[in-house]
Amino acid sequence: MVRNKTISAQVAEVVLILVMLVISFMSLAPVVHVFSVSFSDNAAAAGGIVKFWPVGFSLESYRKILGEPHFFNAFFVSIKRVLLGGGINFVLTVMMAYPLSRSSKEFPYRTVYMWFMLFTMLFSGGIIPLYLTIKSLGMFNTIWALVLPGAVPVFNVILLMNFFRNLPKELSEAGYMDGAGPWYMMIKVYLPLSLPAMATVTLFSIVGHWNAFFDGMIFMRSAENYPLQTYIQQLVVSQNALLELDSSKLELLMKVSDKTLNAAKIVVSMVPILIVYPFLQRYFIHGIMLGSVKE
Amino acid sequence: MNIKSFYKHYHLMLLPGIVLLIIFQLVPMFGIAIAFQNFKIGLGIWHSPWVGFENFTYMFQLEDSKIIFFNTVFIAVCKIIAHLIIPLTFAILLNEVRFSIFKRWVQTVVYLPHFISWVILAGVVMDLLSLDGIINSTLKMLGFQPIMFLAKNSLFPGIIVSTDIWKEFGFAAIIYLAALTGINPSLYEAAEIDGANRLKQLWYITLPSLVPTVILLATLSIGNILNAGFDQIFNLYNPLVYKSGDIIDTYVYRVGLVQAQYGLATAVGLLKSIIGFILIVISYKIAYKYANYRIF
User: Fold this and answer.
1) Rounded to whole angstroms, how far apart are CA atoms A60 and A79?
2) Is B270:B35 a contact under the CB 8 Å cutoff?
3) Is B235 close to A158, i.e. CB distance below 8 A?
4) Looking at the partner chain, which of A17, A122, A125 has a beta carbon nearest the beta carbon of B28?
5) Cα–Cα dist B279/B296, whole Å
6) HEC profile of A33-64
């Protein structure tokens, strides 16, 4: 049956595949473009003749990055932030999801906690009150301003809680019968069973931390504390920054306008995402479906 | 087994998270008081003079308010509509491709932009649209005048919506692809036996099977009507396009944190929070009532 497809069906098939190729190309094109610019000769890049392949191949821009302490500084602030923030997110997600996944008979207070969390997820005081809170806690210029405000990823907690609730009830009944306490059950039984789900939410939180720029911009008052995305934002993107320049930012901006160098910085900042991407990709479809299945 | 003896352990597990939520979510909510004050940072929240609804009345008199409110809703609604239609179309087309290896490859590629930050992508978009960028150099080659894309109010919302859909359409298609795999294959077999070609199958089986998903997503997106995408717009806009691209969030940032008009900015933010909260609650209620959707 498959063999004697009509001509028009075969044409349709080919057209479909071509359309998909074009769409894929469009998704990749900007990224490929930046890669190409970063490996190109500076003059060629400034002239705008670099498209999707390096013109006048050169590693000059990467060599220049090596001589920029600000960039490395920002890179390490971001690494620190991902490790610390991702770790905190991980621990808190498990520690909150487990008790909340108990039935209301097992833990009657769960509803109160649930409503509280839902409220904090859906309603917020806005950016100004948060800014003033961080300020009054004396957290400006510290890594804590970047990791603590988002320490509880409420949405992830709910995802994992739903995952726990779909595990068979007999599991915890049997465990408790055998004398296991809640901590033991959480760490030794539920956590290992939920590793794929945990991997998903953790990868999402890592990507979130890596990509965040705004908190770095408003909570870090001096350039050496910027995480990488904030650094790039100020350097490459920001035209609005001119409105609020202070001397340390101005110093940063002075070094602008090297197209290949900027492209190289963008590439380096994308590398960690491209490294975790294959893992992400394996888990996230599963992970997204987590929340959608309920008993 | 004494279940009640576990309560304290459960409370203990929740304690650190709840404390952090109280400090960084609940406490700032009291900062809403600033919206009703003529807040001076030196005086603090306890000593700043109260002004009642003055910030709100001032906000409603400002010409800016109407513009940013319109821009926010306009951009957000365009995005919502585009996000319903384009990923759906893409998912249906991809689903028709028969080679599964190719299919998986396409999926991997189109999901990628979702994971790259707007800071990076804005840099790329600006580069592409700049005067000596790839698009303008192509235009010049074809004999057209170059266009300053990001400085034109007539083009800016369109650029925002289309770059956003470019970044997110692949990822947004996941949910449709999942719904597509959920369709019972025997429906297609039966249709084939009855002589329905692929187009007919698409029209009578695939599309109707996706309607519930589309309706659910449409309902849930009601909550996003005031979220036009801060990260994206903040990184792409400039003073020349404030008229068409300034949204509530960017306005709050500029008025509050740059110009230090804390009272006004908090008032604008508060109004947004309240409307957003009501919209989300309504959308969840509808989704629960008609699609039995609940988040916990």
Assistant:
1) 25
2) yes
3) no
4) A125
5) 19
6) HHHHHHCCCHHHHHCCCCCCCCCCCCCHHHHH
Alpha helices in chain A (DSSP H): 7-38, 42-46, 60-66, 69-101, 110-122, 127-136, 144-147, 154-165, 169-177, 182-184, 191-193, 195-211, 214-219, 228-232, 247-254, 259-290
Question: Which sequence spans correspond to the domains of chain B?
Answer: 34-291
Q: For A240, which of B119, B178, B238 is closest by C-beta distance?
A: B238
Angle at A80 (CA atoms; ends A74, A85), nearest 5 degrees = 125
Query: B46 touching A, CB under 8 A?
Result: no
- By the CB < 8 Å criterion, does B188 face chain A? no
What is the CATH superfamily name and number for domain B34-291? MetI-like (1.10.3720.10)
Find how far residue A185's CA is from the centre of its chain: 30
Nearest C-alpha neighbor of A101 from the set A113, A91, A90: A113
Domains and CATH numbers, chain A: 7-58 (no CATH), 65-290 (1.10.3720.10)
Q: Which residue of A has its CA nearest to B133?
A: A48
pTM of the model: 0.88
d(CA B246, CA B262) in angstroms, rounded, equals 18
**B200-229 residues touching A, CB cutoff 8 A:** none
CB B7 within 8 A of CB A109: yes
Residue A244 pLDDT more than 50? no
CA atoms within 13 A on the CB side of B17: 28
CB contact under 8 A, B257 and A218: yes
Question: What type of residue sits at position B163?
Answer: T
Distance CA A33, CA A117 (A): 43
In this predicted model, what pLDDT tens digit does every residue of A55-93 receive, in sequence order?
Answer: 888 888 888 888 888 899 999 999 999 999 999 999 999
What is the spatial distance between Cα A34 and Cα A138, in angstroms, rounded to a whole number? 39
Mutate to test the interface with A, among B12, B21, B59 (most CBs of A within 10 A): B21
Residue range A12-34, pLDDT digits in tens: 889 999 999 999 999 998 889 88
Question: What ipTM goes with this model?
Answer: 0.88
